[in-house]
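Example 3.
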Amino acid sequence: MLKVILRFFNLVVLTLLALSFFSFILIYLFPGDPLTNLSGIANPNPQQLEILNQTYHRDSAFLIQYWYYLIDLFSGNWGLSVSSGLSLADEVARTLPASIELSTYALILSFIIGLPLGFLAGLRHHKTTDYALLSASVLGYSIPVFWLAMLLILGFSLQLGWFPLSGRISLLYEVPRISGFMFLDIIWSDIDNKSEVILDAFRHLILPTLSIAAFTTTVTLRIMRRSIIETLNSEYIQAAVARGLTSRQIIMKHALKNALMPILPILAMQFTTLLTNAMIVEVIFSWPGIGNWLIQAIYQRDYPAIRVGMLAVSTLVVMFTMTIDLLLRLIDPKKSKVERVAI
Amino acid sequence: MLSYCGFKLNSKKRLLQNSFIILFCLSLFGCDALLNANNQSDGVIYCSEGNPTSFNPQLDTSGTTVDASSHQIYDRLLDFDGQTGNVIAGLATSWLISDNGLRYTFQLRKNVEFHQTDYFTPTRAFNVDDVIFSFDRWRLKDSVYHNVSGGAYPYADSLGLGKLIERVERINTYRLEIVLKQPQSSFLSNLATDFAVILSKEYAEQLEQNDQKDLIDRQPIGTGPFKFANFRQDSFIRFKKHNQYWGDSIQTEQLIFDITPSSSLRLAKLITGECDAMGLPAHSELEVVRQSKDLILDEKPGLNVGFWAFNTSKPPFDRPEVRRALSLAIDKNALIEAIYFDSAILAKNIVPPTSWAFQTEQKNISYNPSAAQKLLRENGIEPGFTMSIWAMPVERPYNPNAIKMAELMQGYLQAVGVNVEIVSYEWSTFREKLKQGNHDSVLIGWSADNGDPDNFYRPLLSCGAIKSGTNRAFWCSEEYDALIDQALRFTNNEDRQYFYFKANALIAEQLPLVPIAHASKYQAFRKNLVGFEINPYGGVKLAGVTKE
């Protein structure tokens, strides 16, 4: 057990080191002055230049500079954004939760819809229900996320006027940022008419969540369906039928649990796909998340922001993937590798 | 296997039925609340087109900065009446002009309170010291705040105000005297423009003590109807109502600028009601606004001109004949149809017809490619000559799509044997490079901030405006400067007309720039918004705008 943890720990540390080194190299690869790419201060005056050279140890050897860069990363001293002059650590702390929030709701939604439907399709294998769900899932699987988002805007915002098309909440409401997660912040804050604000936040959430969830829902559906089919065809189910157990007993006690267990980690992994899709959808819905922020940074050639944003997102993805993987192995040490299920 | 599938289906059916009933009940209960925005919060959201560079219009002539600051945060000594264009009282309640036109005495308004915010609490009301401080900031190079935030005051510089004012003196706490070096009839109008805002001296002193002088332009304090609350780049600007505002207009509790650079997204937000009003609707989208039953499109003839300026400091554009030949090759009517969608009128000169300096009898240069070709050859411009046309990357009221216009002109000039290279940069880089004079010619324009024609003649073509960067033609004529200077010595419009008509003739003869169009100014807003009117003189005014 300890060995597994240690091995994972090593892997995480090495991956993150490689990532941070890559981001350090980017300082030199991006156009412009490396010092500006590092600090975010464009055209520093001679005084600033001297201070900057000292803080970043620019006259030291390359690897020593990298060492100080790492220290800065850990102490939250990530530099400033060239275009806004704000601290990048604050900016990431503001935008990343918005993206995580959106992805989480989309993940939950796709489980709520995808798992029961996949279950149903699996039970009705080779029947009309199965085919109908399967073809619907092909549709959801192949619609590009950004296109779906635009269709939803066109239909539900512009034509029907049901839902807003931009942002997390109406700008008229001023919700102080505590955690960065909108609903928690609303509940914790001491603003008036909370229920109204929550409803407004919810209205803003619906379309972006739906457009990201569509893809993951179909993936969930197909994984669940396949898993149920495989389980129902296994010998112990047939043995249970032979023993005269009722259908309810067989499905609830044996099939469902055994079908779900192997695919749960794979489903959790969908979170990273979701996060990438969320970053695209954010731009369309002007959602103030990290994807939108990164796109703005790219438009404005804000190299320090691009570097830090890339590092933050990749770190999150690496940490999440590794944690799920580790948990899985700790629960079931016999597994040498994550089980793959065809979809 | 079949048996339990059948059973499963039954149980599934029941489950589905139950859940559908539950969902249906829930949706009946929640749908109405969910689908209909029911915003109790009192506030107006204005969708603006970009980030302001600061919150001080003294520092920038860009419309985006002026919109976000001038009429929201600040007041001026004088204002323009939106209907007549006459100068009316602002922070100054009355004023006297001496007989020789050199001495201006202003009586200031009493009990005008500055904003109280979490970063500043005023201890005294507005008085003469604040006016002197605000004027000295752009006027005097040795003023403590002159070099803060770059130290460039393009508007005051292009009008030559710093050189015009001899001194600004305090007579008593509420009485101010301004002495000019020479009489200038447009002086009062200039004091009513967007840039002539009054800052708080007390706030400036507080910042100076804390060594945070540059905050004065980022966390502004003024006397205007709204106080600054916060600003997030690329996202929003939030203003709160100034409770002690001296004016009588009714303010909403909040004013929010939703920063949305794409004009189609601004329109979309207006349609869904996420914005109550939007700035700069695209000319191609005006029809959508007109046809929507929830939206109102307001239109007024704009005080602006879109033009094609030649860099007269570069050969062969230093020769008037070449400039004339090139302008003969362009069909302005076709440009107006294609670029402005007929929401503009053809410009014969730099002032629009709404101005009293407009000359009805002036002739327009007609489209005549064969004459153009002949004139070009006579002046030694052979087929295959290449020139650059710089086109603005952004949409402006006076030119909604400069790049497309440049492409059309490319075709026209090709027909007379001139090759055109179209150049465009990001907006701030574009203006920076333009100032350095790297261009052969440029498609740009000018929006005036007051009704006085001097506001067109001086910034666009005077010698002094080359340095401040508004004279894109780099054209300097002593004769022209003398004419527009003389025009200011007279107060009677008819006397001044004489000189402006002469200046018009000089421009028509020399053609440092080819006027193309005077575009109308548009504003789109939702039906339930009350009191929102186009300000023909400069920036958007949101004081007194409320929702029904």
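The first strand of chain B starts at residue 43 and ends at 48. Residues 55 and 217 of chain B are 5 Å apart (CA to CA).
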